[in-house]
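Design request, tokens follow.
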């Protein structure tokens, strides 16, 4: 429910409901796969693969890594199989449904 609040992100002093925390974490995870203009361009998860970030034949493909670097989002670990990170599709789908129904916070993503 909305009455139980926790600090998110930790150390920020900002209090959020559990739903707010879930939306915040979903946005961060989705952001790993979204193309960015800063740096080398491309997706943060592909930060070390300049060809995947800039080549017109590869830039629209995603690799689903086992883990992600906590500071820069770079994918680490195996990338040859779609494991738990393939669930990002469900988060993207849920964020679209959420923006249409109840969440003004995620609506800004469109």
């Amino acid at each position: 429910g909305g009455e139980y609040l926790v600090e998110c992100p930790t150390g920020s002093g900002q209090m959020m409901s559990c739903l707010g925390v879930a939306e915040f974490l979903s946005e961060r995870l989705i952001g790993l796969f979204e193309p960015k203009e800063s740096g080398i361009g491309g997706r943060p998860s592909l930060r070390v693969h300049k060809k995947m970030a800039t080549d017109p034949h590869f830039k629209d493909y995603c690799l689903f890594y086992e883990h992600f670097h906590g500071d820069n989002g770079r994918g680490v670990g195996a990338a040859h199989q779609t494991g738990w990170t393939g669930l990002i599709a469900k988060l993207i789908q849920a964020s679209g449904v959420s923006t249409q129904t109840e969440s003004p916070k995620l609506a800004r993503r469109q």
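Comment from the thread starter after seeing the answer: thanks! Residues 5-105 form one domain.
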